[in-house]
Specification:
Layout lengths: L3 E2 H17 L1 H5 L11 H19 L4 H15 L2 H17 L5 E2 L1 H18 L8 H18 L5 H22 L1 H6 L4 H17 L9 H8 L6 E9 L1 H6 L2 H9 L2 E9 L2 E8 L2 H9 L2 E10 L5 E2 L14 E9 L2 H9 L4 E4 L8 H10 L2 E7 L6 H10 L4 E4 L5 H10 L6 H13 L2 E7 L4 E3 L2 E3 L4 E5 L2 E6 L2 H12 L6 E6 L5 H14 L3 E6 L7 E5 L1
Parallel strand pairs: 8-9, 8-10, 10-11, 17-18
Antiparallel strand pairs: 1-2, 3-5, 3-6, 4-5, 6-7, 12-15, 12-19, 13-14, 15-16, 17-19
Helix pairs in contact: 1-3, 1-4, 1-10, 3-4, 3-5, 4-5, 5-6, 5-17, 6-7, 7-8, 7-10, 8-10, 16-17, 18-19, 20-21
Length: about 525
């Protein structure tokens, strides 16, 4: 094939989307740290799917329109760092084809190279051995080859692009020691290779089709992990107008298996096995309000509380300041609201909010200046994109990377002060917080020379795994030993969904018996982390 038009490009995108969706669990499993997040494949799939949904809604088969609509859909649906980078790749691609009804191999190669360059620019500190390396090396190789081989066909170019992308992916462990130690390749780069392989499959006449429900079930039957997530939702007036069973079912099929979906008058009842319960709730919440929620860890059988996005009405009277923050768990949501947050976006580990989630939250907050506290390093880029998209309000992203940092920033905020002083005070508060987290390992691995066994509890200090222990209470106590010193004054202990009151009391007593500090205990109800610990 010598040229591709809008119709062909659209079908290439669909084949790439299906390949990414089919292999998202495999990509999730590549995460270096054995923390139960498994989100790279899911983030990229949800990001890409949002772009495809916009392309389908547009109904266009003009190449510049397809590329632009797809890019915009990726931008608004971008989740996590990998999703944001993916959106930037295709934003650069779109910018290169604005005047083209067809692309030959040279034009396609130039567009891919522009995408790689724009993706690098979007990242403040690009790291080699990631998706950035894969797109750059593959695009550079393809562009040089096309320049040196006049008349190169699209198929020939795509063969070379995919071959070099895979070779670059295989080299990522040599560039990032953590990948080499964990014996995995980069998960974001793997997702990109899936997309490009989907393109190539279409050009070869064998486009990738989505796995059937039976094929998905067969794969999931071999896995004993995930969450049984159930909810009953009462549709709002708006929800009843937009609800379509096929649309919701398709969205749920991207997130899990064993799906039961029933509509009973104005009620929607859902049951699903998923690694991403928060994303399932996000899908449901589009149609109304929850009346009942149950989330159970299949490996432990323990019940988890609801994870809800704040949907309270915000005053229509414009005010000077607003705060948007991110958290998972009813307790954390209430805590942030008590500390002056206007909107708490559902999210955190396992469920990174999209750019559009932040844009919607910004619209809810009627304020001249809005602070966004992402509280997770994998959410900051999506928050930044939302701030850039918004042009009517002064949106300031304070790059908080943990819940304790976000809480401390909220506490230090003074509604009677000006923007600059508030920003300085919040930054200072964040800098004085140490963050610890206790969670469980989902696989056997080695990280920083430390052998980790599946099921053990890990103590993370500022994102680094410092210790492991079969008992969560012991893990929490040993972690606190590392975090506290003579200068420590306050310890905030946040109980998660996997910790009991008795276990929390044991940890509290340990702190009081061993350190001269004030102890503030909160029930956050957060998933993934049994305990979140802040030391100031």
């Amino acid at each position: 094939m010598d040229n591709i038009n809008g119709k062909i490009f659209k079908e290439m995108l669909e084949s790439g989307c299906n390949n990414l969706l089919n292999r998202q669990d495999e990509i999730n499993a590549l995460n270096v740290f054995p923390v139960p997040d498994g989100d790279t494949g899911t983030n990229m799939s949800l990001t890409y799917s949002n772009g495809m949904n916009e392309v389908q809604k547009s109904g266009s088969e003009q190449l510049p329109v397809v590329a632009k609509v797809f890019s915009r859909g990726l931008l608004m649906g971008a989740r996590g760092n990998s999703g944001v980078i993916l959106s930037q790749i295709f934003r650069g691609f779109s910018q290169s084809v604005t005047d083209s009804e067809e692309l030959d191999s040279k034009a396609f190669a130039d567009a891919m190279m522009n995408g790689a360059m724009l993706a690098y620019k979007a990242v403040m500190r690009p790291v080699e051995g990631t998706i950035l390396t894969v797109i750059r090396e593959a695009s550079e190789y393809g562009q040089i080859y096309v320049q040196n081989h006049a008349g190169c066909s699209i198929n020939e170019y795509m063969d070379l692009l995919c071959k070099e992308a895979k070779a670059s992916l295989d080299r990522t462990p040599e560039l990032l020691p953590v990948l080499k130690e964990a014996r995995v390749v980069d998960s974001g780069g793997s997702g990109l290779v899936c997309v490009l392989d989907g393109f190539r499959a279409y050009l070869l006449g064998s486009p990738i089709k989505p796995l059937t429900e039976e094929e998905k079930q067969a794969e999931n039957d071999t896995k004993a992990v995930g969450y049984c997530t159930e909810f009953i939702l009462k549709m709002s007036d708006k929800g009843s107008h937009v609800y379509k069973e096929d649309k919701l079912r398709n969205a749920l099929e991207q997130l899990g298996s064993s799906i039961t979906l029933i509509k009973d008058n104005d009620l929607i009842k859902v049951r699903i096995t998923t690694m991403m319960p928060g994303e399932v709730l996000n899908q449901g919440q589009r149609y109304g309000e929850f009346t009942d929620i149950s989330i159970s860890n299949l490996s432990s059988g323990e019940s988890k509380p609801s994870i809800l996005e704040n949907d309270e009405e915000v005053s229509h009277e414009e005010k000077e300041f607003g705060i948007i923050t991110v958290a998972a768990g009813d307790g954390l949501k209430k805590l942030f609201m008590d500390y002056r947050a206007d909107v708490v976006v559902s999210g955190g580990q396992t469920m990174n909010p999209s750019t559009e989630d932040f844009v919607s939250a910004i619209k809810k907050v009627n304020a001249r200046h809005i602070f966004i506290l992402p509280n997770n390093s994998n959410i900051i880029m999506a928050a930044n994109q939302a701030a850039q998209v918004n042009e009517d309000t002064d949106v300031i992203v304070l790059p908080t990377t943990s819940i304790p940092q976000g809480l401390s920033a909220c506490i230090s905020f003074n509604p009677d002060d000006d923007v600059n002083n508030n920003l300085d005070n919040m930054k200072e508060a964040v800098a004085n917080v140490k963050t610890g987290q206790v969670t469980y390992a989902i696989k056997d691995t080695v990280v920083d020379g430390r052998e980790i066994r599946q099921g053990d509890y890990m103590g993370l200090f500022n994102k680094e795994i410092k210790l492991t222990d079969p008992d969560k209470v012991n893990a929490a106590c040993e972690l606190i030993k590392l975090m506290c010193n003579d200068d420590s004054e306050i310890v905030t202990l946040i109980q998660g969904a996997d910790a009991t009151e008795a276990e929390t009391e044991q940890v509290k007593k340990f702190i009081e018996d061993n350190f001269d500090v004030d102890v503030d205990v909160k029930n956050g109800g957060q998933p993934v982390y049994c305990f979140i610990i802040g030391v100031e």
